[in-house]
Each structure stands twice: as structure tokens, then as C-alpha cells.
Amino acid sequence: MVTWPSGPGRSTGYWVGTVKALVIDNDRAIRDLLVTAFESRGMSATTCCDGAAAQRALAVRADYDIVVLGLALRGNDGWGLLRWVRTHSSVRQLPVVLLTGRSIVCGHACAWMDTVSAVISKGSFSMRYFDRAVNKALAG
């Protein structure tokens, strides 16, 4: 069970309990950084480097609590994977945080923006913003 901490530690914004994250990005350094960030906060994280592997992981194991999704992926890109997630009942309600190194250009993408919990820019990444994005996603 995942709960919001109460009392003196509340200001840290860290979640208490077993949070399982799926980190999907084409850049190994980014995946490693995010795994370290999740694990340092008492959460667990699994990684995938492309959309096809992520889709297989989500189809086999639907017990993730949060997905951090890079947009530039080989094969099924981030938008395609987000579309797949939002149309499959076993994972439809998963909170998704988008991770991008570029500005998001509207078009077909804008239709899916309201289905994500937060967007993290690789260019201005900070642990403080990571915490805010993850907390927002997990809070629903």
C-alpha cells in the first residue's frame, strides 16, 4: 500500500510503501539516474530502453504504480506507447510522467497531453522537480 507520510517527515514529499516504477527511456544514463532517484526514496524501479520492451513489460506485469515515459524511443515511440497504455484496461489508469529532451510540439500529441500527470524536461531536470512530478502522479 502506498500512503502519503504524515508528521515531521511530510515536508520531504516522499511516499511511504512499496512503489513500483517503470522507467522507459532510450538513454541509459537517464534510466540509471531515475532508478537511483526512485531507489533512494525507498521505491523500486524497472527499466526498458524502447517502446516494444515497455509494452511487453506492461502487458505481463500490470502492477506498476507509475510510469516515467521518454518520448524518443526506438520502435513504438513514447506517444504511441502512451496511446497503447490509455487504451488497454489493465494499465489505463496508470499515472504517466512524460520525460522529454525537446519542447513538445502540439499536433496529434496535444490530444494525449491531458492523460499525463506531469512532464519532466531533461534539460532542466532537478531532483526537486522529479519529486514534485512523482508526488503529483501518485496522488492522482
3D structure, described in words:
The chain is an alpha/beta fold. The chain has a single domain, classed as 3-Layer(aba) Sandwich (Rossmann fold). It has helices spanning 28-40, 51-60, 78-86, 110-113, 127-139, and strands at 20-24, 44-48, 66-70, 96-100, 118-121. It has a five-stranded parallel sheet. α3 links the parallel β3 (66-70) and β4 (96-100). α2 runs parallel beside α3. Residues 1-12 have low confidence and may be disordered.
List the helices and strands and how they pair.
Blueprint: E1 20-24, H1 28-40, E2 44-48, H2 51-60, E3 66-70, H3 78-86, E4 96-100, H4 110-113, E5 118-121, H5 127-139
Parallel strand pairs: 1-2, 1-3, 3-4, 4-5
Give the end-to-end Cα distance, rounded to a whole number of Å. Answer: 15 Å
CATH architecture: 3-Layer(aba) Sandwich
Strand order of the largest sheet: 2-1-3-4-5
Secondary-structure element series:
EHEHEHEHEH
> What percentage of the residues does DSSP assign to strands (E)?
15-25%
Structural class: alpha/beta
Average pLDDT over all residues: 81
Q: Characterize the main sheet.
A: 5 strands, parallel
At CATH level 3, the topology is: Rossmann fold
Computed over alpha carbons, the radius of gyration is 14 Å
Name of the level-1 CATH class: Alpha Beta
Helix content, binned percent:
25-40%
Q: Segments where pLDDT lies below 50 for 5+ residues?
A: 1-12
